[in-house]
Predict the 3D structure of the following.
Amino acid sequence: MKAPKFEYAKPRSLEAAIRLLTDAGDGAKLIAGGQSLGPILNFRLAQPELLVDVRALPELAVVRDEGDAVFLGACTTHAAIEDGRMPDPTRGLLREVARTIAYRAVRNRGTLGGSIAHADPAADWMNVMALLDAEIVAHGPQGERKFRASAFVRGPLTTALAADEIITGVRIKRLSGRARWGYYKVNRKPGEFAEAIGAFVHDPERGVARALIGAIGDAPHVVADARPFVTGFDLAAAEAALDAAGLPASGYERQVHLVALKRAVAQSARASA
Amino acid sequence: MSTTLSLTVNGAPSAAQVEPRTNLADFLRDELMLTGTNVGCEHGVCGACTVLIDGVPARSCITLAIACDGADVRTIEGLDDDPVAALLREAFADEHALQCGYCTPGMLVTARDIVTRLPEADEPRVREELAGNLCRCTGYVGIVRAIMRVLGERRGAR
């Protein structure tokens, strides 16, 4: 199908963009690469009155190495991360995940901020940011707001972002040299949305052992204390986490998430990049 | 309300009035009569509409034309004199990498990206990279073989 009618604006400053959102009430949508919103518009699932293109906002292009963290502007493309054109504080996790997002033609335009704002439960960045306890930075009429990634996403396609706020970027803490991670997604074909995502990170120097169960049709389930997995996969701990994530007690959906988590833990045991 | 769009298509400057809702594929096909770009699924999955925007592959069905203001767009018609595309066209013909031809413009744009960006790609990687371009008649055997052949030729020529 073809997209419905809408107006289009491409402001040059964050203030101008926020003003457009404020004036539009609920009638505006932000667009960057458009790789999620494009299909949604073509399906007419969204019928905004105004699209505000954020690609000319300088704040969203900022990439800053802050020492113990890296700030990646919202307009960072998946391809830029995949190609190693951005600093990676995660010992290769961001790069490896980026390579598996959709297809190269999509990765060339799709953005980090757009993916997070869209908050598809089966998409990668929201899950990665929740795993890494990253900080989502947004700007609105009242100035800057910061969110913990795990609290930012409220449910499927639903975030804590107000209608007049714009994600400017993500702050990702640096993993130490001894950190290990695993990220495994089950999908029918490379680039498809995941049926299940399992992830695990252990950073002994920072005292971090976190696991994640994602693509559960809801906000990702974070296991903030995943120490049982530090020495290898622990079935009892995994079953408890799957229960807490609200997965059914048996059947395919539970099994596929169990396998994803198991493989992520196994992957974390290999020599990290 | 239509808006003025200025961009470069296949090396030539182009300006037109477009509605914001017009996607790049429809603009290329209906306004510029560049019908080599095919429209398949219209939601970014099939890859038939893949073109180059500022030198890199992109889905023209989910890219608004107006979002390409100032961009350099290259379609399959604009790859006539491209040396890599020439090698690929020959290999696609020899290896029976097309039958109905509907996916072929997008396949060639993606194939060109694979051989230029990933010169060391092996067959599993080529298949992975082709996941975003659907072919529903020829099958992928000939397509993969054609791309592997061009990769090999280019490695041999170094």
Observations:
- Strands of chain B lie at 3-9, 12-18, 50-53, 56-59, 72-74.
- The radius of gyration of chain B is 16 Å.
